[in-house]
């Protein structure tokens, strides 16, 4: 048995599944921060209930996403020791910063936010959710720094058989990062928008009594969906121009023909859905157009499918290089039997599948139950009743 295709399949599976948690986390925390900002500025009490309801869903997804990230990190030590040995001094730097700074700060601020409901001044509590949001995007930045380095190893040189970093600032100016980071941010906002819109639409289909609650939620979701869709499509095509600078033959690779076409198709479908939602928002038909409700419920998975296709295009097109032009994928794999890699692949996949099912069940339970009652005490922790 050849260990290389098994190892590549393992990394593709675990990375793709983890990225789905990340996308929804980034998107939801942004919308929750917007909701809480509007309430803090003197908005209606409905906005506080929205903050708590969508905040619960965000925290569930965040918690399970952490577990998938920890599992994914084991792969570097188990399977890709060649990468650590050759490029660890450079590749490991943004990953270490992401873990030690962005992730721990984000978790700390989030804990304070969760248990600060009703116990902190409004403005201090609002500051916490924005700090959570900013550190979440900082985490995404450093992850994309590391991935962009694999795509285009700028600011480094080979010395004594290993890569050395010439200047950390060069990583921020990497052409591979310039369009991909805004693309990921747009994808996150789009995912959060489609999720909020889809869940709100489901409640309208069920003839909910919380008409005002889900009307406001759907409006925010539709606006976020439109902003995210425009950014995704625009920055997606912008990446094609950037590719000419560092990977001119990437889009000619036989492996990316199919996923690239499907990704572009899904991008335009999501843009059309967002435009339709915006049109109905302007005409004040969001709560009446049942065909839109069915459409938006069915459209919830689209950003996730598009995200997986996008990662396939980005990663398959880099082959046979793990670090472009510096380290081949075949040379980076650990010297362990293929059977052991196959065993870890099966174990990781089963674990990820269990976590994905748990995430779906918990989020579906909270989403179906709906928001708190008007008389629910504000000091209840955001995780109550999960």
UniProtKB/TrEMBL annotation:
<comment type="similarity">
    <text>Belongs to the cytochrome ubiquinol oxidase subunit 1 family.</text>
</comment>
<keyword id="KW-0813">Transport</keyword>
<protein>
    <submittedName>
        <fullName>Cytochrome d ubiquinol oxidase subunit I</fullName>
    </submittedName>
</protein>
<feature type="transmembrane region" description="Helical">
    <location>
        <begin position="53"/>
        <end position="72"/>
    </location>
</feature>
<feature type="transmembrane region" description="Helical">
    <location>
        <begin position="20"/>
        <end position="41"/>
    </location>
</feature>
<feature type="transmembrane region" description="Helical">
    <location>
        <begin position="217"/>
        <end position="238"/>
    </location>
</feature>
<dbReference type="GO" id="GO:0009055">
    <property type="term" value="F:electron transfer activity"/>
</dbReference>
<dbReference type="GO" id="GO:0016682">
    <property type="term" value="F:oxidoreductase activity, acting on diphenols and related substances as donors, oxygen as acceptor"/>
</dbReference>
<feature type="transmembrane region" description="Helical">
    <location>
        <begin position="258"/>
        <end position="282"/>
    </location>
</feature>
<dbReference type="GO" id="GO:0070069">
    <property type="term" value="C:cytochrome complex"/>
</dbReference>
<feature type="transmembrane region" description="Helical">
    <location>
        <begin position="341"/>
        <end position="363"/>
    </location>
</feature>
<dbReference type="GO" id="GO:0019646">
    <property type="term" value="P:aerobic electron transport chain"/>
</dbReference>
<keyword id="KW-0479">Metal-binding</keyword>
<dbReference type="GO" id="GO:0020037">
    <property type="term" value="F:heme binding"/>
</dbReference>
<keyword id="KW-1133">Transmembrane helix</keyword>
<keyword id="KW-0812">Transmembrane</keyword>
<feature type="transmembrane region" description="Helical">
    <location>
        <begin position="128"/>
        <end position="150"/>
    </location>
</feature>
<feature type="transmembrane region" description="Helical">
    <location>
        <begin position="92"/>
        <end position="116"/>
    </location>
</feature>
<feature type="transmembrane region" description="Helical">
    <location>
        <begin position="184"/>
        <end position="205"/>
    </location>
</feature>
<dbReference type="InterPro" id="IPR002585">
    <property type="entry name" value="Cyt-d_ubiquinol_oxidase_su_1"/>
</dbReference>
<keyword id="KW-0472">Membrane</keyword>
<keyword id="KW-0249">Electron transport</keyword>
<keyword id="KW-0408">Iron</keyword>
<keyword id="KW-0349">Heme</keyword>
<dbReference type="GO" id="GO:0046872">
    <property type="term" value="F:metal ion binding"/>
</dbReference>
<dbReference type="Pfam" id="PF01654">
    <property type="entry name" value="Cyt_bd_oxida_I"/>
</dbReference>
<dbReference type="GO" id="GO:0005886">
    <property type="term" value="C:plasma membrane"/>
</dbReference>
<feature type="transmembrane region" description="Helical">
    <location>
        <begin position="294"/>
        <end position="313"/>
    </location>
</feature>
<keyword id="KW-1003">Cell membrane</keyword>
